[in-house]
Amino acid sequence: MAAGPAPIRRLPERVIDRIAAGEVIERPAAVVKELVENALDAGARHITVAWRGGGLEEIVVRDDGVGIRAEDLPLALTRHATSKLPGEDLERILTLGFRGEALPSIAAVARLCLTSRPEGATAARITAEGGALGEVAPAAAPFGTEVVVRDLFYATPARRKFLRSPRHEGELIFETLRRLMLAAPDVAFAVESEGRCLVERPAEAPEARLAALFGLEPGEEVWEVAAESGEVALNGFISPPALHRASARLQYFTVNGRAVQDPLLRLAVRLAYREVIPPGRHPLLVLSLTLPPEAVDVNVHPAKLEVRFREEERIRGFVIGALRRRLAVPAGAAVSRPFSARGGRASFVPSLSRPERAEARALPGFAEPRPAFGGRASPGAGEEPARPFVLAGPAPQAGGEGQEGREESGEGGSGPGPLGTPLGQIATTYIVACAADGALVIVDQHAAHERLTEERLRAEWARGGVRAQPLLLPTVVEFGEAERAALIEAAPELAKLGLEIEPFGGRSILVRTLPALLEGADPAALLRDLAATLREGEGVTALHERLDAVLHRMACHGSVRAGRRLSQPEMAALLRAMESTPRASTCSHGRPTYLRLSPADLARLFGRR
Ligand code: ADP
Ligand code: MG
């Protein structure tokens, strides 16, 4: 027989429904999830769930929500029919459902009976079997909706084979319900399995719902978390460091009210708790993240269990930061909302919110402000005043190791040195100073600061190791394979430079510390830069020979940029530090960090004799 190509034909609707149903309805727990979410979307205050035979025999979900009009009942069981997407906008989804797939999918693989009564109407009922809809008929029922699902997967024995025992499926149903109940503590639930009441909870406070469902012992308390940053908020309850479990099962997340099992949030929790609980143990928590609907895509998973954040890094950082700050509050000092700064602008944890403008922070490597000598440069309109700074840590001395640095020299003790007294800044890039001998000094602020930072890094390294500063927000950075390998290979050397990194999953690296001198530097940018630097000399030069290049790149990331407004004391401190630092007169590329024009030079330039 000549077997030509088989003709292409459209699949019958019934088959399409069953294919789609397979994605949405994997097992009885999925039916319960979809039905309860529908009840929540319908504004129910009270939801009853009951099942038999692990949900395969029967599942019943009843609610007191808005109901469905009789004439809409057939549509409710029709694929891609929904009341929840008023427009065509998938960017702003506010309901749990929106795909119009759940009821038709269930109807395609079970016998379904849907009874509903909206306010001001009588009840009506529709049945469906294996996807075929029956007629709408009048019924007697209270306000709200009842869905009865029987003989799940009766028409798809293949699917049934993949299921576990009824007892196990029942446990999965309860796990799903626990998730949903934690996400909606303001809704009352009654749950019954095999004719037995499993749990009954009134509408209640979130912590009461949590304690009941987590089975906390007396004395086991959880801490409240409330943090916000801009339009993103994190609320919920977390276990203190002393309370943990062997499994991570009791970690529940909602995103805009939707119960999700999101890897990003799980990772954030792991990172936040890493240092406070024993390895292999897991915190318990219920966290809800709220953000503008357009900042998160919920349409990435047929069962909608995962979401995608538009700004993953930011969300992860925000969650880690909020948890860490909360965990850092000593027990007993715990107050109900320690850092919710409602009404304040993005200031839930001031020390974590990275100032957007470089002007707002002190120069890296320079400590808290001290009483300044001289006047403060008055900041321009709309600009935050730059903080005065002093040098932190001993400066490397031209004379050798171990000597105390002269970092106080800028504080008025010994007066200005050869680089003089700063007169001001030009083009927010150069410091102009007048030396005691009348010379005019012009300093390139970025080149100078970079040089100082580099020399300090080198001095610390030579003394046995650069001081490391643990990151408040451990950062995970993704790399290409070669870059990642280069960094991992160099990790022991980098650790001596105060940069502690470790492999973290497929293509990622976890940054634990930065050199203290680089405070405020962007770890991701620094690492990318270092990866490139390390690879430049690969195979040609040994790693230790690339130390200079690495130090230089580090210094660059930790140094004040051109364009940063400096106060008078900051400028003075920079000049004094330059005077006490060897090789401060040129940057490591040999370009000068400052120019000095003596009165004789000036006379010559002006053609005076
Ligand atoms: P979706 O929830 O994605 O809209 P479903 O197939 O789950 O799709 O439900 C289809 C429609 O049936 C819903 O949009 C809603 O209008 C209606 N519906 C389903 N369950 C309920 C309920 N418990 N109460 C009120 N209306 C419901
Ligand atoms: Mg739905």
Structural class based on helices, strands and sheet pairing: alpha+beta
Distance between the termini: 111 Å
Ligand types: adenosine-5'-diphosphate, magnesium ion
User: Mean pLDDT across all residues, rounded?
Assistant: 79
Helix percentage range: 25-40%
Q: Which assembly state applies to the chains in this document? A: single chain
Residue share in β-strands: 15-25%
- Unreliable residue stretches: 331-414
Sheet with most strands:
9 strands, mixed
Annotation, overall tally of beta strands: 25
Tally of contiguous helical segments: 15
> What is the CA-based Rg, rounded?
33 Å
Instruction: Give the overall silhouette.
Output: elongated
Write the layout of secondary structure elements.
Elements (H helix, E strand, L loop, with lengths): L12 H12 L3 H14 L4 E7 L5 E6 L9 H4 L25 H8 L1 E7 L5 E7 L2 E2 L3 E3 L4 E7 L6 H5 L4 H18 L4 E6 L2 E6 L4 H9 L8 E7 L2 E7 L12 E5 L2 E3 L2 H11 L11 E6 L5 E2 L10 E2 L2 H17 L37 E2 L22 E2 L29 E6 L3 E5 L5 E5 H18 L5 E11 L2 H16 L4 E4 L3 E8 L7 H14 L10 H11 L10 H12 L14 E4 L1 H7 L4
Parallel strand pairs: 1-8, 12-14
Antiparallel strand pairs: 1-2, 2-7, 3-4, 3-7, 4-5, 4-6, 8-9, 10-11, 11-14, 12-13, 15-16, 17-18, 19-20, 20-21, 21-25, 22-24, 23-24
Helix pairs in contact: 1-4, 2-6, 8-9, 10-13, 11-12, 12-13
Bound molecules: adenosine-5'-diphosphate and magnesium ion.
Magnesium ion (MG) binds next to helix 2.
